[in-house]
Amino acid sequence: MKRRTFVTLAATTPLLGFTTFPLYAKTNAPTKPVWLIELIKLNDKNIATIPSTAQITDKSLKSYGAILDGDDIPSPQSTGNFISKWAMALSCPESNYYQSTDLLKKIEMATRYLLSVQHKDGTIDLLGSNFNSPPDTAFSVDKVAPAYRFIKASRTKGSETVLDLLKNYLQRAGESLIVGGIHTPNHRWVVSAALMKLNDLWADTRYIQRAEEWLLEHIDLDAEGQYTEKSTGGYTPLVNRMIITMSKGLKKPELLEFVRKSLIMTFYYVHPNGEVVTESSNRQDKGTIGHLDAYYYAYRYLALLDKNGEFAAMCRLIEKTAFQKMLGNLDAFLEDPTFWQELPNSKPLPTSYAKAFPLSGAARIRRDDWDATLLTNNAGFLTFHKGDSVLQAMRLVASFFGKGQFQTEEIKKEGDSWILSKKLEGPYYQPYPKDQIDPNGDLSKMPRTNRPKSEIQYLETTVKITETIGGIVVDIDMHGTEGVPVTFELVFRQGGTFAGVQAHATKPNAYFFKESKGTYTLGRDTIQFSSGRMEHKGILLRGGLPAMDAPTVYLTGFTPFVHRVVLS
Predict the structure, then answer these.
(1) Segment (H or E) for 301
(2) Which among 56, 151, 154, 467 is least surrounded, fewest beta carbons within 10 Å?
(3) Which residues of the chain are in CATH 1.50.10.10 domains?
């Protein structure tokens, strides 16, 4: 992508940022940079592709004005998001829809729908799970409050009615946020940030007091820089953005220190292709393909505020790898002209390190163009990325009493190696102690833990991971009870091609590996793996997890199972 320098377009949009934190006088506003105008044009393209049937226009329906979600369900969330898209276009002179009365009519219809589904207490529903939901109301305010600003600033003919409707919706929502509860840790900050946005529009001490009440619980950032949910692919960048909003609205710049620590930690959670590690997450993004676009807001804000070259370098990395996805925060970039300044010069980011994150149950190894993640309490205990070619999970299972799926509870560093381990026992049970037998033979009153054990079987597994030139060596030692079937899985990301493996006769996405060397290639990037082993064809052992929906290479054997796999 070309270098994004500033242009001197005569941007006439009034400043929309927080009035309590003006950086520029209105007569000295910066012009919009090229990257921002590109996002405005991208928003136009998205609007142009919206099918005419997306918004319900049948006035006889209760859902009149709503926008259908991906399942064709009228949705307050989809509707609020489209109000935001349309309002941004309406307010930008660079947009093809600038001051469009047609868009204004769509916004009015959509806003009337929001009011029609808003409950008496001011809340809305998230139809997939949450009803009369203050947190989902706060997420809506996060999008709709800026839309109110954009429409007001656009001076579009006839916008007074829409503004009145939006004001009604937002202020009613505010009443619910003053008293409403939450579900998850991040909801506290989403609600508080929404209150700050409302307070900036219509000052109300109750908004401030409620946000301060949530803040009494303290920001939940651990010593490593992770929030409680560890949701690097979802809620972490969201919380960063919400805390910045809170710091402005509450006039507490000290809150930004939490964001700084989170952003520094994220340096070490970046794959060589610009994706973010998600395997440690406690939320629905766990193990998904995570991108950095949602981090751009916080990185740019603090790069400019602190003149921070590393943060600036992250911004440029995100522009290179996830620019179009940045559209999701276009409203925030338009609302605050501080973002329109040129970034400071970049400083090098860490690209060669071995670093443990024990509070997150992870260790990270990166050497320029490849990286590995080691994980506790995760059946996919290792990932390996080399550009776009990705081993998304390494798994190991033995058919040992139905509980042989390997996962470690800790990662130990021993010399140059990382050690993962697990000990299992498989006992049999003797007759219940005579003096404790329930007279009615009720087994619920005779717990198995009270029975004497016999014929106890043991299985001990150690996985040692050591760096080598261009990759890692994985040494597996599984011993104890002999003759136990073992299956070792290399689970790759969809889309690539194999060499050196043998396709399973009946199961798609399954491959046996018994040669000395195999490869997996996706695009220009290739992961080499060695060596193979095939002593049986059991790929779904009892007690093991179901096969992942991904191309998987299987190595098989029996205990004692001692084997080495090299990834490079």
Answers:
(1) helix 296-306
(2) 467
(3) 26-340
Q: Does domain 26-340 have CATH number 1.50.10.10?
A: yes
Short-list 279, 312, 272, CA closest to 295:
312
CB atoms within 10 A of CB 359: 13
Asked if omega into 140 is within 30° of 0 (cis), the reply is: no
Q: Classify residue 309 by burial, with Cβ atoms within 10 Å: 0-12, 13-18, 19+.
A: middle
The neighbouring-strand residues paired with 350 are: none
- To which H or E segment does residue 212 belong? helix 205-215
Which of the listed CATH numbers 3.90.1720, 3.30.230, 2.70.98, 1.10.3230 matches domain 352-567?
2.70.98
Across the beta sheet with 352-357, the strand order is 352-357, 362-367, 370-375, 382-386, 389-398, 485-492, 552-558, 510-512, 502-503
Side-by-side strand order, sheet with 417-429: 411-414, 417-429, 453-468, 471-480, 561-567, 525-530, 518-522, 497-499
What mean pLDDT, rounded, does the chain reach?
93
The gap from C-alpha 95 to its chain's centroid, in whole angstroms, comes to 30
| Residue intervals in the chain for CATH 2.70.98 | 352-567
Pairing relation of β-strands 518-522 and 497-499?
Answer: antiparallel
Structure tokens at 493: 């990301």
Give the tens place of pLDDT for each residue, 221-235: 999 999 999 999 999
Which residue, 491, 509, 490, 487, is CA-closest to 405?
487
State whether residue 71 is helix, strand or coil.
coil
Q: Is the pLDDT of residue 501 over 50?
A: yes
Burial of 96 (0-12, 13-18, 19+ CB in 10 A): middle
- Token representation of residue 492: 């790759």
Amino acid at position 566, single letter: V
Can you tell me the distance from the alpha carbon of 35 to that of 329, in angstroms, rounded to the nearest whole number? Answer: 13
pLDDT in tens, 202-213: 999 999 999 999
The pLDDT value recorded for residue 25 is 36
How far is Cα 221 from Cα 208, in angstroms, rounded to an integer?
22
Q: What is the pTM of this model?
A: 0.92
Alpha-helical runs (H) found in 55-159: 76-91, 101-117, 134-154
